[in-house]
Amino acid sequence: MSSNPVPSTIPVMVPWLGEEEAEAAAEAVRSGWVAQGPRVAAFERAFAEHLGVEHAVAVSSCTTALHLALIGAGVGPGDEVVVPSLSFIATANAVTYVGAVPVFADVDPATGNLTADTVEPLLTARTRAVIAVDQGGVPVDLDGIRAAVEPRGVTVVEDAACAAGSVYRGRPAGAGAELAAYSFHPRKLLTTGEGGMVTCRDGEVAARLRRLREHGMSVSAADRHAAAGGASLLETYDEIGFNHRMTDIQAAVGLVQLGKLPAMVARRRELAARYRELLAGTGLRLVEDPAHGTTNYQSCWVLPPDGAPERAELLARLAGAGVSARRGIMAAHLEAPYKGTARVPLPATELLTRRSLILPLYHALTEEQQDRVVAALRAALG
Ligand SMILES: Cc1ncc(COP(=O)(O)O)c(C=O)c1O
Fold first, then answer.
1. Residue 273, Cα to own-chain centre: how many angstroms?
2. Does the structure show a pLDDT above 50 at 348?
């Protein structure tokens, strides 16, 4: 299968897309049905089967998946939701969308994830949910957090945006959560251009989320079209919904990508292991598997040693050597919409967001390119 070309500056991420995806998208176009339809339904079934869960609802992004997941968890105005500040801002924004308040907890500096210990002190009578993020693909210790919060009536929603292909205690990451949200943005392993999925345990909640993604319609447009005499099958709108739909063109690409996911994970883990070997002795700490699972290395982040040049300087030196690295994960509580709202100090979050950086890692990265990254990094460290 041919892959898309890789430019001479080594990028941080290149999706692994080929002729098969192009053909699948073209077939969807040729079929004449390009909005949410049979391919979306097939992608949902395949994704649910991959996870070993019953209900998967395809949506337009992980942001919209989180939005629906919070509604599914019953979160609304006046509620509090504990989230890591160390996450893409969409995690906190989804809480704001439903009128609730994001309460920022610190993370374990080894994994970049929430723990029961960082979440527990922030629980109040108003806490309705926790969003546990599998940051950069590293599976969060879901069971530990659930054990700490569920006795208090708090639901854990897993933000598995980065984690398709990661494993938690022998199961795909997200599979053990009441509700989980995935992203298919091109910075993730499995991509549909834009796209997302929300999974959930409860069949009634799943049915409601299916309606909510499509304006609250009681019968989807695709079902009306497919039904004999569909024109007389009238839908009702029983609550205010959204347009959070995925298209059949995206789903067609997603079905092909899902089949390639195991190969993508294997290659990324191989390349990450090679980075670890090649960077030995530099003092850089490279993110690794936690005790309870394996990461897909969606983000291959490193923490430079004390005394290393400032991160901006490192990134500039890498860029000068033709290597496009990136700053590490952002911290929402340092951005304008959430500035000054953190209720507790977040030292691990602030350390990781200030100092870590993400190295190039993608399926088609060659060993020669990886050697160039390592040489540039060693030179940048001085
Ligand atoms: C942890 C996390 N949550 C949510 C999102 C939002 O995903 P999307 O771009 O699919 O809306 C991202 C995107 O990077 C993410 O990393």
1. 22
2. yes
